[in-house]
Amino acid sequence: xxxxxxxxxxxxxxxxxxxxxxxxxxxxxxxxxxxxxxxxxxxxxxxxxxxxxxxxxxxxxxxxxxxxxxxxxxxxxxxxxxxxxxxxxxxxxxxxxxxxxxxxxxxxxxxxxxxxxxxxxxxxxxxxxxxxxxxxxxxxxxxxxxxxxxxxxxxxxxxxxxxxxxxxxxxxxxxxxxxxxxxxxxxxxxxxxxxxxxxxxxxxxxxxxxxxxxxxxxxxxxxxxxxxxxxxxxxxxxxxxxxxxxxxxxxxxxxxxxxxxxxxxxxxxxxxxxxxxxxxxxxxxxxxxxxxxxxxxxxxxxxxxxxxxxxxxxxxxxxxxxxxxxxxxxxxxxxxxxxxxxxxxxxxxxxxxxxxxxxxxxxxxxxxxxxxxxxxxxxxxxxxxxxxxxxxxxxxxxxxxxxxxxxxxxxxxx
Length: 414
Prior knowledge:
Layout: H1 5-13, H2 21-59, E1 66-70, H3 78-86, E2 91-105, E3 109-117, H4 119-122, E4 132-134, E5 146-150, H5 151-157, E6 164-175, E7 178-192, H6 197-202, E8 203-207, H7 208-215, E9 223-228, H8 234-244, E10 249-253, H9 254-257, H10 259-297, H11 299-307, H12 312-356, H13 377-403, H14 407-411
Parallel strand pairs: 3-8, 5-7
Antiparallel strand pairs: 1-9, 1-10, 2-3, 2-6, 2-9, 4-7, 5-8, 6-7
């Protein structure tokens, strides 16, 4: 099989001889360094993707993909608006809601967000039904004034299912005794836990009709919650609905409601990618020292090739091939190791915890007690291309130095 001269000589130089074992050792270290850097980079980015995915799923366990509310506070035509929204091809679920910040008094007092929902429609827009740990969402019945609490909110209030508590509405009412707050007794019918402290500590669910009576919402709803086919197009779909619906509405999607959190996660991923890329860069630049030593060791060979008619471009190609082989082999080894580790990290970590009798992420401290991983093909491709690019760049200077070798100078003392 025909092979260009550059490839033939470059690949031959990768095989060690007795006098240059040290150079081959440095080449091996550079290769393993690249492999280790690529493996670590793929694994860490995959774990961070897993955390982001887990966080997103837990947030969407309580939130819908998008919400449409009236700027007046109450949506008078919510039934028609919900019917119109349901006709959009990307909308797969819609449900009305009422939300108010309130004060709740059990054995202790705590502030909370009380959300009025329709239990029959809530499962169409959120995953809260699957996160109920005591009771069922259907236990919220109109007129019974039942309330479902987050587990940490119930602890803060000192109540449990079957207990009664008092909800203070933000509205005031005039009585012969003066202006008094609107209050109502509710019975705890269940508990839920979505794994996010914000919701488990600060949210309570009641029936939509009960919320309308408590908060004096004559229209019966203050907005519509939507679930769309593709969550990453939620803003686009909500904006389309905003222009199609009759009236002036305020639209938010799930990323806007937690914009700072997701920006922080994305920034952390970017910073970690840059920092860990330096491991690959250091290993790749070690190739420079390897090739410089090879060039010095092969001065006589280069001079003989030049006298036989090899051009400077041919000599440069020989050492580019040599350095690229080290980089490509290390990158491939790292990609294989990274993919294998990232896809099995959820099995490896529990095994290590059991082996060393430790728990890396205690459930008493962290809401996510396991180590999730979400390896994405585009990240693997991006990391592989970055490693190859750094490798090729590191070969240019030594190869150029080799091409500048003068045969007469190199052979003077041979």
